[in-house]
């Protein structure tokens, strides 16, 4: 059975870059924003609508309103469709899945390696300042807001807590460098695959 790697990450930690590098080393696909494209086809929602709903959860008022008319909130509809897309991609072959609660969605599947990427706040601020061309103060605000949304979203749809080391096979500090982090993950996957032969 092939291995699937899920990458959860703090905002600005470089988790996406690490995921792409792992996929490159192992010569397997990396799915990040592409999951949204597949979900858009499945649901009929635009890619923009799906991206706007990412990391957001419906509030109690929304649930009350939708349960009254026997419909499902859009956020839930998108999450469940996205989950089906993730399960289908994982069934197809080895791949890297970045974010989107993939660790939780695939919790009943064997041969999944769940990774959490983190970094000190100073490194994350520098990365966000460079990537978004914003001030140090603004970068700090962006990081806090995005981490808060990711945690809320993940914990809403999962029985695992986002960022808690015990919920991952490997947590890695990206200050070791994208290349080193990716090589470590790739070697671990190769070792696990050999063990299963």
Q: How would you describe the overall organization of this protein?
A:
With 197 residues, this protein is of the alpha/beta class. The chain has helices at residues 15-26, 34-43, 47-53, 60-68, 74-92, 102-105, 121-132, 136-157, 178-196; strands at residues 4-9, 30-31, 95-98, 112-118, 170-173. It has a 5-stranded parallel β-sheet with strand order 2-3-1-4-5, with helices on both faces. Helix 2 crosses helix 5 and helix 7 crosses helix 8. The N and C termini lie close together (9 Å).
Low-pLDDT segments: 60-70
Q: How does the helix and strand content classify structurally?
A: alpha/beta
Counting H and I runs of at least 4 residues, what is the number of helices?
Answer: 9
Give the overall shape, derived from the CA principal axes: globular
Rounded radius of gyration (Å):
17 Å
Helix content: 55-70%
Q: How much β-strand is present in the residues?
A: 5-15%
SSE string: EHEHHHHEHEHHEH
Number of β-strand runs = 5
Cα distance, first to last residue? Answer: 9 Å
Mean pLDDT: 88
Strand order of the largest sheet: 2-3-1-4-5
The main sheet comes to:
5 strands, parallel
């Amino acid at each position: 059975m092939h291995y699937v790697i899920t990458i959860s990450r703090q905002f600005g930690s470089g988790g996406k870059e690490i995921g792409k590098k792992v996929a490159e080393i192992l010569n397997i696909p990396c799915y990040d924003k592409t999951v949204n494209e597949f979900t858009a086809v499945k649901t009929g929602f635009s890619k923009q609508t799906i991206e706007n709903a990412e990391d957001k959860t419906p509030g109690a008022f929304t649930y009350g309103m939708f349960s009254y008319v026997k419909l499902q909130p859009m956020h839930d509809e998108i999450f469940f469709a996205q989950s089906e897309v993730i399960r289908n991609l994982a069934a197809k072959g080895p791949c890297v899945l970045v974010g989107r609660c993939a660790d939780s969605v695939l919790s009943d599947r064997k041969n999944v390696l769940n990774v959490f990427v983190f970094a000190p706040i100073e490194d994350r601020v520098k990365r966000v300042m460079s990537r978004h061309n914003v001030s140090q103060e603004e970068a700090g605000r962006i990081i806090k807001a995005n981490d808060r949304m990711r945690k809320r979203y993940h914990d809403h749809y999962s029985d695992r807590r986002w960022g808690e080391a015990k919920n991952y096979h490997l947590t890695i500090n990206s200050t070791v460098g994208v290349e080193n982090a990716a090589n470590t993950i790739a070697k671990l996957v190769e070792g696990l695959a050999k063990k299963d032969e």
